[in-house]
Write a structure and sequence with these properties.
- The chain is α+β, with helices and mostly antiparallel strands and about 450 residues long.
- The protein has four domains: about 100 residues; about 90 residues, 2-Layer Sandwich (Beta-Lactamase), CATH 3.30.450; about 70 residues, Helix Hairpins; about 150 residues, Heat Shock Protein 90, CATH 3.30.565.
- Helices cover about 50% and strands about 20% of the residues.
- It contains twelve helices and 13 strands.
- It has a five-stranded antiparallel sheet with strand order 2-1-5-4-3, sandwiched between helices. A five-stranded mixed sheet has the order 7-9-10-12-11, covered by helices on one side.
- It is elongated and about 155 Å long.
- About 20% of the residues are buried.
Length: about 450
């Protein structure tokens, strides 16, 4: 009754005046009054409808027409409803903008597909991973753009629990994991994640297990074989015993070196072991490393020492000496007899640098990025002949990483290589007085 009482009251007043006029003897006048009053009421209704139509056409940014009575209530309620709708629309636009910003920041490719597998929208990462563009490819069937047969079968299967690993159509060097997720009414999300690094790490893990097994199997086989031989011999000669025991001792030491390096890597990778904050007097350490290089060389190489700075280095003496020793021993092993090794300690652009330069065979550029991988060798047979475990540069990389440093490798095949450990400037300690003794003794 809330709406009807006002128009009914208006019509009742018109009818009452018409009856009063008719009772006074003016039936014709009463009829004319009723007709004119109803016509006026109708005209006013049409005028109000016209005002409403024009206001709706102008949009919600203009205030609603003002009036009294029924139309005043209608304008007020419509304006209130339109304000709520405008607020809801603003909130929806804001939420959509936040969603778009979030998806643009996500490194994974996200593609919205409709029920016919047409592209409705995709985020910027989809361009890099899938070669798709939201503006160019909108409305296109995704199977026409991603034509790999494995992907088409994956799309047709509609198995949302399944994942597919494929090479990126935009870059064959990128490995992707694809997954379909139900989204809204008959829509789907196609999600693409870059798993190139995960695949590389998994491959390294498999190679590591295989290499450790191979490295240990060979000396164990040799030692076991000689033990069986000795067991079958009634009275082995002293010369044979010395020969057999010498070979077994060499292979046992090789296994010991391998296990020591594995334990060192395990300790370096442990987050529990923090880097010791010690002051290392580099000139003395450089002289010790030079003596170590000469001992390993046994006079077969010329070892040069260049100390361009008397500064100290902040870090773990034991770890730094281990890393530098690995670089020196590598240079000795891979430099032919008569070659030269140069050990340098200097400061470049405010950064302390330890460098080892050799005149060895050099390394091809395709091998350099992988040199610090465990058991990666350019020449496997030569590495074993020289006593290498294949873990030296991996240890160097971990130690330098723990000190915030990096390993720079420059090499030219046939001319030699330079391995430089470049430390951050904050690890450089200004030199002390020349007559001041080092605060830390070297690790023997």
């Amino acid at each position: 009754m809330g709406f009807w009482w006002r128009p009914l009251a208006t019509l009742s007043v018109i009818a009452l005046f018409a009856l009063l006029l008719g009772a006074g003897g003016g039936e014709s006048l009463a009829l004319k009054f009723a007709v004119l009053a109803l016509l006026g009421y109708l005209v006013r209704q049409l005028w109000q409808e016209n005002r409403l139509a024009r206001w709706l056409e102008q949009g919600a940014d203009r205030p609603a027409p003002s009036d009294i009575g029924v139309w005043g209530d209608i304008f007020y309620r419509l304006e209130k409803l339109q304000k709520r709708q405008s607020e809801s629309q603003s909130e929806l636009i804001s939420a959509l903008a936040r969603f778009q910003h979030a998806t643009e920041a996500v490194p994974d490719g996200i593609v919205i597909l409709n029920e016919q597998d047409q592209i409705a929208w995709c985020n910027p990462a989809s361009r890099k991973l899938l070669g798709l563009d939201s503006q160019r490819d909108r409305g296109q069937f995704v199977r026409y753009l991603l034509r790999q047969s494995d992907f088409v079968d994956f799309l047709n299967a509609r198995d949302y629990s399944r994942q597919l690993n494929i090479n990126s159509p935009a870059n064959r060097d990128i490995k992707l994991m694809l997954q379909l997720v139900p989204f809204g009414a008959e829509q789907k999300l196609l999600m693409a994640r870059d798993i190139t690094e995960l695949e590389r790490v998994d491959a390294m893990r498999r190679d590591f297990v295989a290499n450790v097994s191979h490295e240990l199997r060979t000396p164990l086989t040799v030692v076991g074989g000689f033990v069986e031989t000795l067991n079958d011999m009634d009275k082995p000669a002293d010369a044979d015993l010395r020969h057999y025991f010498g070979i077994m001792l060499n292979h046992t030491r090789r296994m010991q070196r391998l296990l020591d390096d594995l334990l060192t890597l395990s300790r370096l990778e442990s987050s529990v072991n923090a880097v010791a904050d010690e002051q290392v007097y580099m000139p003395e350490l450089m002289r010790e490393l030079a003596r170590e290089g000469e001992s390993l060389s046994r006079g077969k190489h010329t070892v040069r020492l260049e100390i361009d700075s008397q500064d100290w280095l902040s870090g773990s003496l034991q770890e730094l000496q281990s890393a530098f020793s690995n670089l020196v021993s590598n240079a000795v092993r891979y430099t032919q007899e008569g070659g030269e090794l140069t050990l340098r300690w200097f400061v470049r652009d405010g950064q302390p640098v330890f460098a080892v330069t050799d005149t060895g065979e050099g390394i091809a550029s395709e091998h350099i990025p992988r040199l610090t991988e465990r058991f990666y060798r350019v020449d496997r047979s030569r590495s074993r002949e020289t006593g290498g475990t294949g873990l030296g540069l991996a240890i160097v990389k971990h130690i330098l990483t723990r000190h915030g440093a990096r390993l720079d490798i420059q090499s030219t095949p046939g001319k030699g290589s330079t391995f430089s450990a470049i430390f951050p400037a904050e690890r450089l300690i200004p030199s002390k007085n020349e007559d001041e003794k080092p605060r830390l003794s070297l690790v023997k």
